[in-house]
Amino acid sequence: MKINLSVWRQENSQSDGSFYNYTIENVQSDLSFLELLDMLNEQLMAKGEIPVEFDHDCREGICGSCGMMVNGQAHGPQKKTAVCQLYMRNFKDGDTVTLEPWRATAFPVIKDLVVDRSAFDRIVAAGGYVSVKTGSAPDANAVLVKKTDADQAFDYATCISCGACVAACPNASASLFTAAKISHLALLAQGNPERKQRVVKMTQQMTAEGFGDCSNHGECQAVCPKGISIDAIAQMRREYIRTKLPFG
Amino acid sequence: MAFSSISNSEKSKPRKSESRKSDHVAPPAEMWQSSIGKKILTGVTGLGLVTFVVIHALGNLTLFFSAPTFNYLAYVIERLRPLLYLVEFSLLGLLLIHIAIGIRLYVGKRSARRIAYTAYESAGAPSRQTLASRTMIFSGLLLGVFLIWHLATFKFGPVYRVPGSTDRDMARLVFETFQQPIYTASYVIVLGFLGLHLRHGFWSALHSLGVATKPSVFMGSDDLGRAISIAIKGLPIAIYFGLLG
Ligand code: FES
Question: Bridge partners of A22?
Fold first, then answer.
């Protein structure tokens, strides 16, 4: 099939960008979306033009490197899918697909579709860790965790930090990302010692990075490639309320 | 986690994190600054305001019963003056906090995404994004303006007396007001926006307090918003079409 692409191209973080139109012929329906971009880049390089820059690594939906707005939706039209796992069978012959980078002040565009997501690293560095004793491995089952808590903590731990939640949020808020990290650790005994300072420090960092505040639009949970629920955000708020209580 | 390895000289430097002494119980000022604190304050003040709206609406319904009952209720409320002042000042406080944070959220959201998307589309369920959620700032500000108008019309409006008494005849004022077509129509329209505001607001407030995690709460909020709006609209519509009095 034939696919028309309208791609945001931007030289660097200082320059202004604009859309460029390209057409790719003979696209197989079992190609991944990133393979389509590979085809585009081969076409461009053959003509001596500069290829379109985009992030990717595993191409298996597990590393969180990839991500872009595909026709106005983070990671494209398929639910619970990173853009590397989006296949061309989701599109029709002659479709025009608009590609934009994640847009958030806290995620400056580096080039074309690549944004700098190191703000996420700094949020995690502010408190998304646990302190453990080093030395010999602890006994198995020394720390008991309820099955339901373990399952939920695991769901939150599946966050791949791709940034789709920020990209799709009308407020460019990083609440789902930050909440997934906080709530994951809040449910586990290992996360307990730093429990109170974690929620305060990570959310302070989130604000300091320039992310917007949450308006409970819940758009984030609809685009998360791992399907993380905004229950994580409710839990993050309970963690915050806990810091205000003299007990708890 | 894998992030881009290309470094950007200016942006990749760690930004200064705000220095705050206390990690534990912090003063209310901390909540005013905190991203979550703001949501909690918005939620609590919003729930306080909606409680008042529901009580107010229930009070209005006494007019369906009879004009003297309605006037009697107004009289009793007048008699509770010191308490009335307390309630009025508390409501004003809740309202100002609610509005101030709402405006800050809106301004913050604008600066958090300076370049708008050329193409943007909601991904659909389980997104909670609705017309109501997207227009909170506008429906809210409209309600603020309406409130001033509403107080000017009724609370600070013309004072009629119940014949043969010194009591204020509020029922007559209400009847006269809602016999004017333009007034009644704009009133009903603005109350539609109240419904819209509450359809997202009620659920959102509960989520901000960390208690609403079930889809049923989201649905319930939608219904409650509509129900409150319809209950309040009932009175002006009934009066206008001569179904009362
Ligand atoms: S490239 Fe690793 S998640 Fe898409």
Answer: A5
